[in-house]
């Protein structure tokens, strides 16, 4: 385990007994959490891929240490937002619940031996919504990756732009796009891994601007949310609609990769890119 | 029902009566000028009351006014326009209108979202909500403009991108993401004008620009007030409150540094004087293009990068939970 992980977790390790059992939302199997973790948060009975925490994702993806970027960039409250609750209170609750300071962790680490810039979104913080901090951290990651000429892998999980930050949130689509464009125009390699769910502003920006787009099985991916579409057309959508498999069939993504095979696949992709790059460098 | 349409109904009646009196005054030898003056005073008083300080929610309704000038009304005032059609893949989306044009002497590529002016046209134009093929047309025209070195002029007026089954099947997300990318790397000046509704990502796809102009009563929002209310309040009737909280007016966006300039509208809204409004807007676009066209492509792109790179509000203090060590 990279040594930064225990540091992050030491403060608020959940009491063992409180979090011993989890129920699979698909097949209702009751699972012992330790077994679930050992199986990469995939239900051993039905294969359902649980939504992962960013910390766990980094732990199962990165070889050794992970140097975080932008950890000190933290959310403000530019609109002094209040709906049923204050935005500040929602942020505090999410920090407590997820042990994260925002909906993405970015940094540099190795995947299968390849030094890589890595971004991991976490749905447990404000539904993975992209506000200023998510946009800023993703942009910082891509800028660093560009400077260091590193490949970049971003795991997405997001309900879209964060409404509590209004237009400043929408503008993060523009900011991340600017960073992706500058990074890619320099001949760098961006991979996105779309996890459940990836919708709205994140799918309409960097998630679908990558060179290779992979997705986890059954992940819900789309622009408009299912509910919005059903309300618009006034009928129920088929179960398969907007799943990773549906997108693969329609030609929107490159591959659907089960979590158990994901690290090996990323390693192979990084290997191809490195081979192409060394050829460019030699010419 | 549109709030503004409702509120201006009394005013329109008053206007009609004033016109009738004027006619009578001219035709007969009867002197009605004092009555006319009284009515006119009353008229302007009511007008001030209604339109003097509009709430964000009223502005949203003004932006949606059925008689508000649409993109094609603006394009009609260009010296020349030759429409280009289709995305080369699937079909021609009528919610997007674009092509070569001349604004005065200057050749440009104009790209616009076009809503309908009546039910029939709205059906053809999908209420101004573009589908993926529309955004692919946008991307194609922006690419062509950059290739030829023609500045890009866009008009933004959409509730949002189409949220239907077909749009998802044809990758609405990718189509919008590709537009954002194309506008970001374009080597030519881009001037975007929000003339009515700026609905979320569907509007952003036409408005990554070097200069963003907004009409006084247009709005631009991360989500529609109705959608935001439904999600965050679980109550669509909170749309008015959401509109106020979202900071979506042209004046708000000028403060955020997202909009660069605001074009004033006549009292009562752009539809009360379309010709005047349109000519003011086109003048501002021309002026902006004049300033931007002298910049070399690299400098233009760098300035565009820095503009979007800066937008946002965050703090940089260290939280307990991310601190190192026990």
Brief summary of the model shown:
The complex is a heterodimer of chains A (about 280) and B (about 325). In chain A, about 40% of the residues lie in helices and about 20% in strands. Chain A has helices at about 5-10, 35-40, 55-60, 85-100, 130-150, 165-185, 200-205, 225-235, 245-250, 260-280; strands at about 20-25, 30, 65-70, 75, 105-110, 115-120, 150-160, 190-200, 210-215, 220, 255.
The CATH topology of the largest domain in chain A is what? 2-enoyl-CoA Hydratase, Chain A, domain 1
The largest pleated sheet of chain A is described as: 8 strands, mixed
Structural class of chain A: alpha/beta
Count the beta strands of chain A. 11
| Percent helix range of chain A | 25-40%
Architecture of the largest domain in chain B in CATH?
Answer: Alpha-Beta Complex
Number of helices of chain B: 14
CATH C-level label of the largest domain in chain B: Alpha Beta
**Main structural class of chain B:** alpha/beta
User: Which residue ranges of chain A are poorly predicted, with pLDDT under 50 across at least 5 consecutive positions?
Assistant: 9-13
Largest interface: A-B, 72 and 63 residues
Kindly provide the radius of gyration of chain B, computed on alpha-carbon positions and rounded to a whole number of angstroms: 22 Å
**Beta-sheet strand percentage of chain A?**
15-25%
- The CATH class of the largest domain in chain A is identified as Alpha Beta
Count the E strands of chain B: 9
Topology pattern of chain B, helix = H, strand = E: HHHHEEEHHEHHEHEEHHHEHHE
Distance N terminus to C terminus of chain A? 39 Å
